[in-house]
Amino acid sequence: MKIVRWAAALPAALVALAFLQPAAHAESAKPPKVRTVVSLTFDDGDVTHPATARMLQKRGVRGTFYINTDTVGRDAKLTRAQLAAIAKGGHEIGGHTLTHVRLTELTRSEQREQICDDRRTLVAWGYRPTTLAYPFGSVDADAEAVARQCGYDAARGVGGLKEWGCPSCPAAERSRPADRYDIRTPGSVREDTLLRQLRQQVLNAEKSGGLVTLVFHRVCDDCGVYSVSPRTLDDFLGWLVSRKAHGTVVKTLQDAIGARYRPVPGE
């Protein structure tokens, strides 16, 4: 009875405050606002990519896989069935030209054949490619114009963002890139790229917010200059997903920039 009388004697303001505390706690539990988006892109349709796609899925993230359709089914490259399995896992499938050529060394008509025919093949296979990756990051005004004419809504280059070789470059691309047909990235991940360097590229981007697109090729041990070990990639993914608490999320490039599907000319 004494306890009841004591509670009844509490000032009304204190009683009201007690009821407000859970609401305040709920407010603080809201996830942080997304400020930084990381896109993980994998070039060339390599035979190591099915395992890579599964690795991403186990971490709850999805990547973008860029395909040279004329090389599908060849040695050390994806088969049609493997490509379909990657797409079924929720990953983005994008174009990378027919045969992985330097577009800046071609005539405009040759560029059109490489980009448009590659995209037509992907569409014929049942995919809806919205973004293109230029092989070698080789791009000029003609290649950008052809990418647009072939129906792509955006395209990715290589380079232009901050890394060890370009400390003065911006750390992140804008959420709405100034040039949708030459989206900037750090340089390609190489066999000598350290885990701490991958992390630092994301930490640099978090200072300003925006989009940082990472460029990978083969995912295997001791298999070439443009490769990353599965362990390094998996350790990076584990760290990367923990950055959600800091407002950093992983999206496919298509989702990161809101790329829309447009029909291939002549469809």
Which SSEs are present, and which pair or pack?
Layout: H1 2-8, H2 12-28, E1 36-43, H3 49-58, E2 64-67, H4 80-88, E3 92-95, H5 108-124, E4 131-133, H6 141-149, E5 154-160, E6 183-185, H7 195-208, E7 210-216, E8 218-219, E9 227-228, H8 230-242, E10 248-250, H9 253-257
Parallel strand pairs: 1-2, 1-7, 1-10, 2-3, 4-5, 5-6, 8-9
Provide an overview of this structure:
With 267 residues, the chain is of the alpha/beta class. It has a single domain (33-257), classed as TIM Barrel (Alpha-Beta Barrel), CATH 3.20.20.370. It is 38% helix and 16% strand. It has helices at residues 2-8, 12-28, 49-58, 80-88, 108-124, 141-149, 195-208, 230-242, 253-257; strands at residues 36-43, 64-67, 92-95, 131-133, 154-160, 183-185, 210-216, 218-219, 227-228, 248-250. Strands 1, 2, 3, 7 and 10 form a five-stranded parallel sheet that branches. A three-stranded parallel sheet has the order 4-5-6. α5 packs parallel to α6 and α7 packs parallel to α8. It is globular and about 45 Å long. The model is unreliable at 1-10 and 13-27 (pLDDT under 50).
Quick recap:
By secondary structure, the protein is of the alpha/beta class. 38% of the residues lie in helices and 16% in strands. The chain is globular and about 45 Å long.
The 3D shape can be described as globular
CATH topology: TIM Barrel
Q: Could you give the count of β-strands?
A: 10
Oligomer: single chain
* Helix run count: 9
- How far is the N terminus from the C terminus? 83 Å
The CATH homologous superfamily is named: Glycoside hydrolase/deacetylase
The string of secondary-structure elements, in order, is: HHEHEHEHEHEEHEEEHEH
Mean pLDDT, nearest integer? 91
Which structural class is indicated by helix and strand composition?
Answer: alpha/beta
Count of individual domains: 1
